[in-house]
Structures are given as structure tokens and as C-alpha cells.
Specification:
Number of strands: 23
CATH architecture: Beta Barrel
Radius of gyration: 20 Å
Number of domains: 1
Low-confidence stretches: 5-42
Distance between the termini: 15 Å
Order of helices and strands: HHEEEEEEEEEEEEEEEEEEEEEEE
CATH superfamily: AttH-like domain
Shape: globular
Number of helices: 2
CATH class: Mainly Beta
CATH topology: AttH-like fold
Strand content: over 45%
Largest sheet: 13 strands, antiparallel
Length: about 375
């Protein structure tokens, strides 16, 4: 989605109190103070770069890290099918968060101002099971990092690697948990899409409260999925994926409770992304928006007034007891699209160091009065 920083900040307090310097229990240490101001969200972002105006993205450079900004992420979601059309959904996310604008003055190999987190989730529709795992580490000792030449992002043994010769739009994605593992090749079928105003995606009306945001909306996927014990046979799969890429310094504006994010790949070749930023009153903020990408790659920006959203059904988590709106109607009247969005399985709640619902969804409905289908991903945060 367009602003996952509110999810990440509490994680820093849990996982990286010793990242800025060597580990310490001193509550007055620079590391502890950095954790407090970031997790409390009360600093003004001084010393970091800000997204202030549109930019022209350059590849493969912009696939790599932007450490002058406080936070950034690489987000992959997809739907694939294996033997006998067995369906799997996957999410792999890499987060980088700076604890301070500059690196610490320390000779220790442990010292760093960068915290890294990764999430991996796999939906196994046939068994009805949902697997989720995470990695938390510091950006030191080679434990995590990012580069653009060649393109590579890694958190411990989870990684995404790209082909520089192909403009870093050919990727290999690998991640594993206790009972699930993926090893996938991703090939971009459409050019990168600049979200918001030519890549500048506003989070609120305040100057600089924005991110730089682009997507690769349609990636062909092939490779393998393994579910079960280490000796379980891998399932060879094919399907489609979506990549979201953002970096920013600001968090969401005051009064924003959360968001609902849709990334859909339709059977007529079109791709749709829309996010609704929800205010405390439950209404969509003016900054809600997205894009509709034609089969040939032409992009149309969507603003709040272009999209009609209606909740069709809810699911209540037996673990967190949170009630999530997991079935939706999404209509884009000017594009003659009227879509029904239903999860492959209802229980796709990620409940790790942070909690949110992120899951694979089926799409059905009409386009210009004709039947249409598809699949995609839905993210629900702030419930």
C-alpha cells in the first residue's frame, strides 16, 4: 500500500533497540531514544529527505535503496497455480527503516542506523491453510541490505534478485518459513507505473507528507512452491504477481485510522490498483486513489470520486477477534467496471509482530456489460 510505515514503527521498538550502536540496556542510549521517538511517531523527520515534487523514475537505480529517506519497501503479491490447478497466494515484503538520518560514529561492525524487516505469507487454498513468517535484523554484518547494480534486496536468507541487463525487471524471489517455501521467477509484462502525481503520492495535505511510489502491475510468475515438511515435494507453478515500491519520510496524516488496498489483475488484460485511506470517521480521505492500466500499458489515474466501494461481507478472526471487511464491490463507472472481490479463504490474517489482513482474492463481475474475472490481493490495515 501507499504508507506502511505505521505498521513498521512498533516493530522497531520490539526488534531493534540495539541497531544504532552495540546492544545496550541503557534507556538513555541513542538507540533507545531513537526507538522511542520513531515508535511514538512524534519526531518531525529532520535530517531526512522528503518527497516534495514529481520525479522521473530511473531503472535499475530506483529499484535499489534510498537511504536518505526514513523508510522504504519492496512489496510482492501474487496468485499462482500448480498441479491440478491447485491455487496458492503469496506475499513477500522487504522493509528498510532508518533509526537516525546518518550512520553512527562507531568502529563496531554491529553499528548501523538501518533496521530491516521482511514478511512472507503463503495461502494454500486447497488445504485452507495460511502460513506467515517474518525476519527482523539490522543492516550490518551483511545480514540485510539492498543494491541496484546488480539489483538485490535481502533480509537474511530471504531475497529478491534482478537482472541488470534487463533493466532489473526480471526477478528471482525466494523466501521460506517453517512449513512453506517459494522460489519464483518474475518477468515484467508491462512498464513501471508511476502512482499519484507522476510518482509523487500524497499522504495528506501537508507539504512533504508524501511518498515516491511506482508499481510493476503485471509480472509473469513461474517456479516452485513447497508446503509441508522440508522433504515435501515442490509444486511447479505459474501465475501473475504485482510489485509495489515506495520510499518516504512522512507517515500518515493525523486522523487517518487505516487503509483498504486493492491490486487486481483482470482477465481482459487490465490491472487496477486502488487504496482507500480511512479517516477516524470511516470515510475515505481526499488522498485516496490509484490507477487503471490498460492491456496495452496506457495508464489512467483514479481519484476518490472515480471509485465506488461497498462492503459485502465480514470475517471475524478467532485469534484477534478483529472484524475485517473481506468481501467487496468495487466499481469504476467511467470504465464500465463493476467487480465483486472475494477472498480465496477468509483466514489470511498476518498476526506477527504487527497485525493486518493481507490475502489473495478472486475477482468476478462485468466490464462494459460483459463477464470478466481475475485475481489479486487485498490489504486491510488499522482494524
Amino acid at each position: 500500500m501507499n504508507s506502511r510505515l505505521p505498521l513498521v514503527a512498533p516493530l522497531i521498538a520490539i526488534g531493534c533497540a540495539g541497531c544504532v550502536q552495540e546492544p545496550t540496556d541503557d534507556p538513555a542510549s541513542p538507540a533507545a531514544m531513537a526507538v522511542r521517538y520513531l515508535s511514538d511517531g512524534d519526531d518531525d523527520g529532520s535530517g531526512y529527505a522528503r518527497a516534495l515534487e514529481p520525479r522521473v523514475f530511473e531503472f535499475p537505480e530506483d529499484h535499489g535503496s534510498h537511504p536518505e529517506f526514513r523508510t522504504e519497501w519492496w512489496y510482492f503479491t501474487g496468485n499462482v497455480f500448480g498441479s491440478s490447478r491447485r491455487h496458492y497466494g503469496f506475499e513477500v515484503t522487504f522493509f528498510r527503516v532508518a533509526l537516525a538520518p546518518t550512520a553512527p560514529e562507531s568502529r563496531s561492525a554491529w553499528a548501523t542506523n538501518q533496521f530491516w524487516m521482511a514478511h512472507f505469507a503463503l495461502t494454500d487454498t486447497v488445504s485452507g491453510r495460511f502460513h506467515a513468517a517474518e525476519r527482523l535484523t539490522r543492516g550490518a554484518l551483511g545480514l540485510a541490505g539492498a543494491s541496484h547494480a546488480p539489483f538485490r534486496v535481502w533480509v537474511e536468507d530471504w531475497k529478491i534478485e534482478g537482472s541488470a541487463e534487463a533493466g532489473a525487471e526480471s526477478f528471482r524471489l525466494r523466501a521460506r518459513g517453517e512449513e512453506a517455501e517459494i522460489d519464483l521467477q518474475l518477468e515484467s509484462l508491462k512498464p513501471a507505473v508511476a502512482q499519484g502525481d507522476r510518482g509523487l503520492d500524497a499522504k495528506g495535505p501537508e507539504p512533504g507528507n508524501a511518498s515516491y511510489y511506482y508499481s510493476l502491475p503485471r509480472l509473469a510468475v513461474s517456479g516452485s512452491v513447497r508446503v509441508g515438511e522440508d522433504d515435501a515435494e515442490a509444486d511447479e507453478v505459474e501465475g501473475l504477481a504485482w510489485m509495489d515500491r515506495e520510499w518516504a519520510t512522512s507517515a500518515l496524516s493525523e486522523g487517518i485510522a487505516g487503509w483498504d488496498w486493492f491490486a487486481l489483475q483482470l482477465s481482459d488484460g487490465r490491472d487496477l490498483m486502488y487504496y482507500r485511506l480511512r479517516g477516524d470517521d470511516g470515510q475515505a480521505s481526499p488522498e485516496s486513489g490509484g490507477t487503471l492500466v490498460a492491456a496495452g500499458g496506457e495508464v489512467r489515474r483514479l481519484v476518490r470520486s472515480d471509485v465506488v466501494l461497498e462492503v459485502l461481507d465480514y470475517w471475524t478472526s478467532p485469534l484477534s477477534e478483529v472484524r475485517y471487511p473481506v468481501q467487496w464491490r468495487l466499481a469504476v463507472p467511467h470504465a464500465q467496471l463493476d467487480l465483486s472481490i472475494v477472498p480465496y479463504i477468509p483466514n489470511q490474517e498476518v498476526d506477527l509482530s504487527v497485525r493486518y489482513w493481507e490475502g489473495a482474492v478472486r475477482v468476478s463481475g462485468t466490464a462494459g456489460g460483459q463477464a470478466i474475472g481475475g485475481s489479486g490481493y487485498l490489504e486491510l490495515a488499522g482494524y
